[in-house]
Design a protein that fits this description.
Layout (H helix, E strand, L loop, with lengths): L3 H6 L5 H25 L8 H10 L5 H15 L5 H6 L4 H4 L4 H20 L3 H11 L21 H11 L8 H10 L7 H14 L4 H12 L1
Length: 222
C-alpha cells in the first residue's frame, strides 16, 4: 500500500517521468547498488571508533581524497580503532587538520555508544546496530536522540550517515543525493527533510530500500 507521501508526490507533474528515468538507472546499476548496500555496514566491523571518525570528518570534505586517508591514519595509529579507543584517544585537531570541535564530537559519540553497549551487555558492533534501528523514528527529529543526535556537531545528514554505517536502512540527505535525484528529473527542495521524503517515495516506486537507493545514486554519479 502506498504511503500518504507517495500518493501526494505522484500528483506532481515531474514525478512520472522522473520515476521512469529512475527505473532505467535501477535496471542498469541496481545489482551493484544492492551488493554495495549489503556490505555497507561491515566496512567498520570491529572498528567502530574509525567509523565515528569517518562520519564526523565527512562533513564538507572530499571523501575519498581527504576523509578516508585521515580515517586510515587514525585507525593505524590506534588499532584496532574501536569505540573504546576513540572515547579515550580522539584525534588531535591540529595534527589531523580538523576543526577544534570535531574531536570532541567524536569522543562524545564514542563514549555514549560504549555506555550503551555496557548497558545492553553486547559488543560494540551490536550496540551500534541496535542504536541505529531504535532511532529510525527520529530521522526527522535527530536532536531527540540522546546518544548521537543531540551531540553538538551532528545534523540530519551525519545522523543518517552514522545509522547507515551501523547497519540500519537509511539515506544521507546531502547535496550529493539531492543532485542525483534532480538529475533524474525529481523536483527536490534544498532542505534535508524534503530530500528524505522525496528519496523514500522514490525508493518505494522501485521497491528499493533507502540504503540501496543511496548506493544507486552514488554509483550513478561516480
Amino acid at each position: 500500500m502506498a504511503s500518504d507521501e507517495l500518493l501526494l508526490l505522484r500528483q506532481r507533474p515531474d514525478w512520472p517521468a522522473a520515476v521512469r528515468e529512475l527505473r532505467v538507472r535501477a535496471e542498469k546499476h541496481g545489482a551493484a547498488a544492492s551488493a554495495a548496500a549489503r556490505t555497507y555496514a561491515q566496512v567498520y566491523a570491529g572498528r567502530r571508533g574509525a567509523m565515528v571518525f569517518d562520519v564526523v570528518a565527512s562533513r564538507q570534505r572530499r571523501y575519498e581524497q581527504r576523509v578516508l586517508p585521515l580515517v586510515d591514519r587514525w585507525a593505524s595509529e590506534h588499532a584496532p580503532g574501536t569505540l573504546a579507543i576513540m572515547a579515550t584517544s580522539p584525534p588531535d585537531p591540529v595534527t589531523y587538520g580538523l576543526l577544534a570541535s570535531e574531536p570532541r564530537t567524536m569522543r562524545t559519540i564514542a563514549r555514549n555508544l560504549v555506555d550503551l553497549a555496557n548497558r545492553l551487555g553486547v559488543d560494540e558492533d551490536r550496540a551500534c546496530l541496535e542504536w541505529a534501528e531504535d532511532v529510525r523514528a527520529l530521522e526527522h527529529a535527530h536532536g531527540l536522540d540522546p546518544v548521537v543526535g543531540a551531540v553538538k556537531g551532528i545534523g540530519p545528514a551525519l545522523f543518517a550517515y552514522l545509522r547507515m554505517r551501523c547497519g540500519a536502512d537509511a539515506l544521507k540527505p546531502d547535496v550529493r543525493v539531492a543532485k542525483g535525484l534532480r538529475a533524474l528529473g525529481f523536483r527536490v527542495p534544498g532542505d534535508q527533510h524534503s530530500i528524505m521524503v522525496v528519496a523514500r517515495a522514490a525508493a518505494a516506486e522501485i521497491d528499493f530500500d533507502l540504503l540501496t537507493l543511496d548506493q544507486l545514486l552514488w554509483l550513478d554519479g561516480a
